[in-house]
Amino acid sequence: MSGSIAYAANLSVTPAGRIYAAVKPILWLAVGLLAVEVLVMAFEIRPYYLPRPSAIASGIMATPGAYLAGLWRTFLETALGFLAGSVFGVVMAVVFHRWLALKELFFPLFIVSQTIPVIAFGAVVVLWFGNTLFAKAVISFYISFLPVTVNTLLGFSSVDPRQVQLMRSFGARDGQILRRLYLPAALPQLFVALKLASSLALVGAIVGEWFGDTTGLGVLLLQAMYNENVVGIWATIVVSACLGMGLYSLVSFAERKIVFWGGEQ
Amino acid sequence: MLNRRNILAAFAAAVLGFQGFTMTALPAAAQDVVNASLRLKWLTQAQFAGFYVALEKGYYKEEGINLTINPGGPNLLTENLVATGADTFGLSGGTDSVFAARDKGMPIVCIGVAHQVTPFVFVSHKDGPVQTVADFKGKKITTWFTGANHVLSAMLSKVGIDPKDADIQPQQVSVTPFVDKQVDVVTATRYNELYVINQRVGKDNLNLFVPEDSGVSFPRDTLIVSEQTAAEKPELVEKFLRASVKGWKDAFANEKEAIDIIMKIAPTLDRAQQEFMLSEVKTLMTAGKASTDGLFTIDKDAVGSANGLLAQYGVISKPVDLDAAFNPSFIDKIPAGERRL
Questions:
Q1: Chain A contacts in chain B segment 261-280 (CB below 8 A)
Q2: The pTM is what?
Q3: Is the Cβ pair B266, A48 closer than 8 Å?
């Protein structure tokens, strides 16, 4: 009885807390930007090293369409790669957990795949898939699935074998044990990996765009870099950071919704 | 895509063939438009304006080509993408990358040269220690190790300096070390880095060292196709060149319109910089033999000197067979009068 009261009390508090949690990173960003603006003016830092945040903002506002189109395109690539990477990561963890022989056979290959620099891999992806959204999503996928597999496996291993035996003694089948016991037990670990994978997927998408495209944050970054358009570089960094934070908050939000028992954060 | 379309057309033709022979003309007409792609050496910018103008104005369509322009990027080798058939045409690095590719046995052919003279120069501060090429000795120089370093070596050798006696370092993206005088000599393309240096140091405070003044020439920005395309679809190559030349002539005749087209695709570019780039590219593309023979002329003498230079410095194992690597027959089909500005 007391447990349900605590749960209800918790519910009434969360909406305001959630809004604050969502706004908090933006709030801190604003404070940080203001501090940088003041510092740059106070110490008269040359714009080649660090332009004033207001100059960066006006840089974005000069061609908002280009940044919005870039943001949208990079978001699509990241989301596609992230979702595919997460699903694949979890499925592989289940497979490796169920058939240990497969794990011994293929897990080292997974590790090796991550030691190949994504830059080297990118050229091959362009050869295979051309300059498509899909090609960038593939790089995103490639860079994001391993942490998901590793952490899900870690989560599976935290399950008490006696609980498994108990469920088996009640006649639970493998699928039921997986759904009712292993997957829920691995969820807190899984979400740690998903948060990591969301940032990695963004990096993958941006690097993917460095292999030739017309829209995307990676393209804007490259263009600004090679034209020594320092304001443009910073403008793209800011937009990328917003996208990264947005993705992270989205995963965090899902975590709080789904893993309601996870006490951390 | 092409194959699927062919199969569909064949299927349609077969079906129609049963119904009556008079109908078979229809799929044949649909087949006249061919899909092709052009891979650039870099991102969309005024350096490639002519191709975008030709695309925008439908010149490729008029020739029956449904062209897609794919921008390049760092770590992408245009020769690779054209050799494997991922892209039909390529605007690749230059004579250097064509020679390197041929040396490795890649089946690509150069069908036109855009920049007739070396597009980069070496730059020093007027109030600095380097006033002549002879002063390069013992100084700190940055350059690109993709061909420019060999031009530099050749220039130094001509005035009797062993390239080992100069402190030659790989050049990073930014020219800031040169602007801050941490570096004595920097390499700059006339259409890009030089603009930034002019802006930040001032045009009048700079010494420019031009490779051609030392008798070294390194034509760059080469149009390439695979040997297979050159052999099997010569008419496609010709049509592509004709439309491209038309686009470039329009771009140079109306630079404002060309920049508008580029800025529409890449709105974050700096307009003033793009205008500078297009006028510099015009100089490079109409220099040397192109002034008489027209755009995309293959100057075998200039190309041959680059060939010798690369062989001399061991970049390629032996001089490449020029006639196999450079095929001027396609561009020569378009009369010089039509290719001149």
A1: 265-270, 273
A2: 0.80
A3: no
Q: How far apart are CA A72 and CA A162, in angstroms?
A: 48
Query: Please, is B199 exposed, middle or buried when counting C-beta atoms within 10 Å of its C-beta (0-12, 13-18, 19+)?
Result: middle
ipTM field: 0.70
From residue B45, alpha-carbon distances to A17, B48, B192, B269, B297 in Å are 48, 6, 10, 8, 22
Nearest to A212 among B76, B80, B273 (CB): B76
Q: How far apart are CA A165 and CA B100, in angstroms?
A: 65
C-alpha span between A156 and A151 (Å, rounded):
9
Q: Choosing among A50, A60, A124, A126, which should be mutated to test the B contact, i.e. which has the most B CBs within 10 A? A: A126
Place of tokens 């860079």: A143
Percent of chain B as helix, strand, coil, to the nearest 5: 50, 15, 30
Looking at chain B, how many residues does it have? 341
Name every chain A residue with its beta carbon within 8 A of the beta carbon of B270: 227, 229
Band the pLDDT of B173: cuts 50, 70, 90: confident
Determine the average pLDDT of the residues in B108-115: 96
Please write the tens of the pLDDT for every residue from B59-106.
Answer: 999 999 999 999 988 778 899 999 999 999 999 999 988 998 998 899
Contact criterion met (CB below 8 Å) for A54 and A196 = no
pLDDT tens-digit series, residues B20-46: 333 334 444 445 799 999 999 999 999
Dump pLDDT digits (tens) for A12-47: 555 677 788 878 878 887 898 889 889 988 888 888
Instruction: Verify whether the Cβ–Cβ distance B43 to A212 is below 8 Å.
Output: yes
CA A41, A45, A48, A53 dihedral sign is negative
**Of B341, B267, B251, B232, the residue nearest B297 (C-alpha):** B341
